[in-house]
């Protein structure tokens, strides 16, 4: 059978391939992956692919020259960079990390094979990586391997300079909390909010955890900890990955995340309406 593509669908697919670079909600550039050539030279990058537990090579563009060209040197004084992905994944990564380590925007597999990976961290799901995939030179900086895949979003369609406090005000813990809760908030920001929301703010890939009922109010403590530690032990075929095994003091990190979630019972907000504007 010969299939015909409706023009509207073709146009939508073309729009989906664009990467929108924003500065505080204002669009600076909208580019197709191949247009990154305008701002930087691509290279073949060898990485340890944490999603597949093996080394791989990608055709990739260094991030810093791209951001310098699009935003000017001012991006280096920004707070965070928020990456929006087709699947709802939305990590907010401190600018300091991009200044300390070498990050790249991968656009293809180096050997010309399909730009996909077998995500062993999410039940061996085969995923498309385009339009672009954020990778780090973790062979040059092995310390990055401790973080697992926390800051490696794929299917990126938006890159935005942002202030965390302005973008995600509903995620901050209440006043006068313990140091444990404050550390838990930082862990949640890094490892959990990329998929989950608190008071409607965060990633859109996984369920809300605080509003209207906190997950800590209906999940027994021992099972909540087990869920973060080893989701597959509670749910067959779950796409939720376990907290990265290489994280230093992992047991303490688990407890501090739960302390933060518990404290957030006191600061429930009505999730803000989603803005449909670009």
TrEMBL record:
SUPFAM superfamilies: Cytochrome c (SSF46626)
Pfam families: Cytochrom_C (PF00034)
MF annotations from Gene Ontology: electron transfer activity; heme binding; metal ion binding
Superkingdom of source: Bacteria
Entries under InterPro entries matching the protein: Cyt_c-like_dom (IPR009056), Cyt_c-like_dom_sf (IPR036909)
All residue ranges annotated as the Cytochrome c domain in the record: 179-265
Record keywords: Heme, Iron, Metal-binding
Xref: Gene3D superfamilies: Cytochrome c-like domain
Protein name according to UniProt: Cytochrome c domain-containing protein
């Amino acid at each position: 059978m010969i299939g015909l593509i409706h023009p509207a669908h073709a146009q939508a697919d073309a729009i989906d391939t664009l990467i929108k670079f924003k500065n505080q909600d204002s669009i600076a550039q909208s580019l197709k992956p191949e247009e990154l050539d305008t701002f930087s030279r691509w290279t073949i990058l060898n990485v340890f692919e944490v999603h597949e537990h093996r080394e791989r090579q990608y055709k990739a563009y260094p991030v810093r020259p791209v951001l310098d060209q699009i935003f000017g040197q001012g991006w280096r004084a920004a707070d965070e960079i928020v990456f929006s992905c087709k699947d709802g994944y939305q990590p907010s990564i401190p600018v300091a990390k991009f200044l300390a380590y070498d990050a790249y925007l991968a656009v293809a597999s180096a050997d010309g094979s399909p730009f996909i990976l077998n995500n062993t961290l999410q039940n061996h799901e085969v995923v498309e990586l385009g339009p672009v995939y954020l990778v780090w030179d973790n062979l040059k900086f092995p310390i990055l391997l401790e973080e697992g895949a926390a800051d490696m979003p794929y299917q990126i369609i938006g890159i935005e300079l942002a202030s965390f406090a302005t973008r995600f005000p509903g995620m901050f813990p209440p006043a006068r909390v313990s140091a444990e809760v404050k550390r838990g908030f930082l862990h949640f920001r890094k490892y959990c909010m990329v998929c989950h929301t608190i008071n409607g703010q965060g990633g859109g890939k996984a369920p809300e955890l605080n509003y209207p009922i906190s997950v800590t109010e209906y999940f027994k403590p021992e099972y909540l900890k087990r869920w973060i530690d080893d989701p597959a032990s509670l749910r067959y075929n779950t796409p939720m990955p376990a907290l990265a095994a290489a994280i230093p003091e992992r047991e303490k990190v688990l407890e501090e995340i739960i302390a933060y979630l518990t404290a957030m019972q006191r600061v429930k907000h009505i999730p803000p309406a989603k803005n449909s504007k670009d």
